[in-house]
Amino acid sequence: MENKPLANVEYLALKKLTVFRNSIFRYLLRAMMASMFIGFGVIVAFKSGNYFYAEHSPFAYPMAAITFGVAILLIAYGGADLFTGNTFYFTYTAIRGKMNWPEVFLLWLMTYIGNILGAACFALLIHLTGLYDDPTVSGYLLSVVDKKMHVPTAQLFYRGILCNWLVCLAFFIPMALKEDVAKIITMLLLVFCFFVSGYEHSIANMCTFAIALVIEHPESISYGGVIHNLIPVTIGNIIGGSILMACFYYFVNKPYLDHDEKVLE
């Protein structure tokens, strides 16, 4: 059963809540760190994929998907707070009666704000490095951003649902594994699946868009495009994490969870 991983989900949620209650500023810094870690993944992914993109190779996207996995490893082992994962952790813990709902929604909001701030700071740092000043280097990133900003709203919404379902699984399934090597391989495989499938992750998009906007870009890439993408994707991510993960795992495991609690009593 998933009892032990679910207990870990509660533990992590309550740990995050403790950090927030002790210092909102420290919590925001942890959230900023998460999007900066994703920013590292974005840079590695699109720099790697650009070599293939420049040669019109079909391996551009798979290569980006493989290398983007560094982001989840940094978040999982680096102690950062990611909005998409928190939609699962906090919702599940609230359903279990260990958190109150106003705090859940407030923590979602503060995590999202921190992720935005981190994405903006990371984009500024990348701009100052000059790594994307050459159009031949930024071509692949800009082409992907352009496409993401012009996907129909309904499609973005459903891609957001599927994305966070898979991303939350990438954090959740390794909790049942003992060896770090097995955990890392599982995380990398599931992140590869989400990326190569073309699903939409609000915070990864946020970081990618921020970088695209601070470098030389075409008029088709705009702040309006950012809003068009992030609103439906964020709502979809919330549903994927809170409904398909938190509510589903609570419902299918409730009899066993109740039994364990009675035994402990």
Key traits:
Glycerol uptake facilitator protein, 265 residues, mainly alpha, 82% helix, 11 helices
What does this 3D model show about the protein?
- This protein is an all-alpha fold.
- It has a single domain, classed as Up-down Bundle (Glycerol uptake facilitator protein).
- The protein is 82% helix and 0% strand.
- It contains 11 helices and no strands.
- It has helices at residues 3-22, 24-54, 60-68, 70-78, 83-95, 101-129, 135-148, 153-172, 180-197, 202-214, 223-264.
- Helix 1 (3-22) packs across helix 2 (24-54) and helix 10 (202-214) packs antiparallel against helix 11 (223-264).
- The longest helix has 42 residues, at 223-264.
- The protein is globular.
What's this model, at a glance?
The chain is mainly alpha-helical and 265 residues long. The protein has helices spanning 3-22, 24-54, 60-68, 70-78, 83-95, 101-129, 135-148, 153-172, 180-197, 202-214, 223-264. Helix 1 crosses helix 5 and helix 2 (24-54) packs across helix 10 (202-214).
Topology:
Blueprint: H1 3-22, H2 24-54, H3 60-68, H4 70-78, H5 83-95, H6 101-129, H7 135-148, H8 153-172, H9 180-197, H10 202-214, H11 223-264
Helix pairs in contact: 1-2, 1-5, 2-3, 2-4, 2-6, 2-7, 2-10, 3-9, 5-6, 5-11, 6-10, 7-10, 8-9, 8-11, 10-11
CATH homologous superfamily heading = Glycerol uptake facilitator protein
CATH architecture: Up-down Bundle
Give the overall pLDDT as a whole number. 93
Radius of gyration: 19 Å
CATH class: Mainly Alpha
